[in-house]
Amino acid sequence: MIDKSNLPGHIAIIMDGNGRWAKNKGLSRAQGHREGIKRVEEILSQASDLGIKFVTFYAFSSENWKRPKVEVGILMHLLDIFLGRYVRMMMKNNIRFLTIGRKEPIPERLWKKLLAAKEKTKNNRGLTAVFAFNYGSRQEIVDAVKKIADDVLEKRLRPEDVSEERIGDFLDTKGIPDPDLLIRTSGEQRISNFLLWQLSYTELFFTKTYWPDFKKENLEEAISEYQTRVRRFGAV
Ligand code: IPE
Ligand code: IPE
Ligand code: MG
Fold it and tell me: What order do you get walking across the sheet with 96-100 strand by strand?
């Protein structure tokens, strides 16, 4: 049972295991991705019904460009076709859509669709769905440091004014609270360059379940487990 008074405000998810899920079933990796992308909509609608305020999905990392060209193409294509469906669903559920990650080298057509989805949902006040797409935490930090250096050089910022809050303002996640709960599926227990700064005090939940098998009861299990954790933030 989930205690509605102790919900994680922000859940971040590393959706992993599409390829292995497909392989186990004798299917192609593309079919694994196609199945995985369907779970996003279901989990979003469940999280929204529960009253969760933010969900961040790791959809494509800055390192995922290393994959075969065909697979990268399939992932871009799937997001492109599913985005329209997501937007309809998000409008119905009062969900705001945001992205984090670098623009280049996302295909122009897909980038425009992502922008349009953000624009269309920007006044929605329910849950915020964040897509980490072409996202890598280290490159996000590099970009932030460059902007800070530039602001110092141009005298818009004094070195003594650089603080944790100010650094947060230069990250893609500006305005988004740090995750309370991180879920990684597929049995891997690593962060894979996801939200390194933001996860400082996040509760971690690892499950062997592959992302395409991640259903309602799995999210409930993760939240229930979160609710047993004692968060001390360094204090006693
Ligand atoms: C996660 O599944 C989807 C993305 C990283 C885009 P994978 O494609 O990494 O699946 P596995 O890890 O190979 O099983
Ligand atoms: C992390 O999964 C990235 C996403 C889920 C988008 P990967 O499958 O790319 O991570 P590694 O390579 O196993 O660390
Ligand atoms: Mg993987």
Answer: 96-100, 128-135, 54-61, 10-14, 181-184, 203-206
Distance 57 CA to ligand 1 centre (A): 13
**E-strand stretches of the chain:** 10-14, 54-61, 96-100, 128-135, 181-184, 203-206
Separation of 16 CA from ligand 1 center, angstroms?
Answer: 5
Dig out the tokens for 148 from the structure.
Answer: 């800070």
Q: Six-digit token pair at 187?
A: 């049995």
- Please indicate whether residue 15, judged by its CB atom, sits closer than 6 Å to ligand 2: yes
Question: How many angstroms separate the CA atoms of 85 and 79, rounded?
Answer: 10
Q: Using one digit for the tens of pLDDT, what is the confidence trace for 116-175? A: 999 999 999 999 999 999 999 999 999 999 999 999 999 999 999 999 999 999 999 999
